[in-house]
Amino acid sequence: MVKVALKLEQRTKLSQIQRLTIKMLTLRSQELTDFLHEQVAENPLLDIRYGDVKSQADAGKEKPLDAVRSRADSLEESLMKQLRLQTLPRPVLLAAGLVIRSLDEKGFCTGNLAELGQEYALDGATMDKGLAVVQSLDPPGIGARDIRECLLLQTRRHGQAPAGTERLLSQYYEDFLQGKWQKLQHEMDLSEKDFKAIRDFLKTLALQPASTADAETEFIRPDVEIYEAEPGKLAVRSLEELPDVFFRDDLYKEYEAQGDKKTRTYIHRARRAFLSLQSALAYRWQSIFLVLQCVAQYQSQHFLQGLPLRPLRQKDAAYMTGLSTATVSRVCHGRYVLFSGHVYRLQDFFAQAYACQNEYEDGEISDQAIKEKIRDHIAAEAPDHPWSDQELADWLAAQQIHIARRTVAKFRLQLQIPNSTIRRRLKE
User: Fold this and answer.
1) 305, CA 20 to 30 Å: which among 45, 176, 210, 409?
2) Roughly how many angstroms between the first and final C-alpha of the chain, as a whole number?
3) Where is the RNA polymerase sigma factor 54 core-binding domain (predicted)?
4) Cβ contacts of residue 316 below 8 Å, gap of 6+?
5) How many angstroms separate the CA atoms of 380 and 396, rounded?
6) DSSP state at residue 414
7) What is the pTM of this model?
């Protein structure tokens, strides 16, 4: 006998215009142009035109960009193709897709899994399963949350790693970073030959997951420019060359006057689709403009004077602009900015905040400012006594910047500075 049961659950339901707006926020210039062409092909009452139409004299000439070949799949596209081949429950596939979209340019998973799944009502367990799926894809190490996990994932996938490698990474990683070879060899009860085999094997692994993916030259075109409109005043402008999509009012009036009820229903639906498209386009640019304007104003000292970034999170930008954190995240994802002739990732202008109570700071200091302090302090160290991570942490604490030694080690690795033991050997 079939049992019938009721189940009450809460789901997020989005309207058509909300789904359209979310989709368009993440699209960059060329992707959005392709999307607009698709909309025109589906709606017979829409048409499209460009502002730089060729003259009759130039009709036979080819634009330089027309001959540029299409690039190979990006890392994100490659991962999504691998994901589509997986036979998994839909929530897990959705969670894995969200994880892939949150990966940084090095292939690390830096997003908050709980926040990523919140918008789609995915719990922590489902997001963890999605992360595990991504970490099973190629290249090995993709989706790791730090360098240690990246090395562990590659070791487990290798299959022929020397005995003790996984144990070293799991239990003695900090000692390994500090180059305490004799201590490690003694505590792990390894012969000198076995320990050397582990070290030689680890040298073959990639420190960045994305570095093992097939690399191909890709030209990046910024979507927005931050420029100095007046001395000491920054402004924002769009660099996108989007086609103009317009509604065929002449056809609409003709079908409205002569068409039957079914035809009129169809053209009314086509008009609503156009209005939704217009609203989504306007909201997209307004969101991008508000976020860029917020970043330009808040980080004006960085742009104009070259000072370190001030602490700024996406949550802070959402509060200052009145947008949701999810909207700010979509604006920042994969978007590039032109400033003073250089192209930057929009995400590069956000910085994590750390407490600082000294006379030069206003209660907070950014991670970039701390990195610069560490770099400058190491540059001035004595050759025969390089600063250890603990000594650097103590030095920062004397300046009322309290961070853990492991955080100092993380910043030092991000600066691509070796540990004190290796620095001493290099200088000797």
Assistant:
1) 409
2) 82
3) 67-239
4) none
5) 15
6) H
7) 0.57
Q: How do the pLDDT tens digits run along the chain, 428 residues long? A: 566 766 766 665 667 777 888 888 888 888 888 888 888 888 888 888 766 444 444 444 444 333 333 445 677 888 888 888 777 888 888 888 888 888 888 888 877 888 888 877 888 888 888 889 988 888 888 888 888 888 888 888 887 888 888 888 888 888 887 777 788 888 888 888 888 888 888 888 888 887 765 544 456 788 899 998 888 889 999 888 888 888 888 888 888 887 788 888 888 888 888 888 889 888 999 999 999 999 999 889 888 888 888 888 888 899 999 998 888 988 888 889 999 888 888 888 888 778 776 655 567 788 888 888 888 888 888 888 888 888 888 888 888 888 888 888 888 888 888 888 887 777 65
DSSP line for 121-165? T--HHHHHHHHHHHHTSSSTTTT-SSHHHHHHHHHHHHS-PPTTH
Strand partners, 364: 355
Could you give phi then psi for residue 48, rounded to 5 degrees?
A: -140, 145
Helix, strand, or coil (residue 308): coil
Angle at 308 between CA 146 and CA 305, to 5 degrees: 150
- Say if strands 336-339 and 224-230 run parallel, antiparallel, or are unpaired: parallel
Q: Which residues pair with 49 in a beta bridge?
A: 244
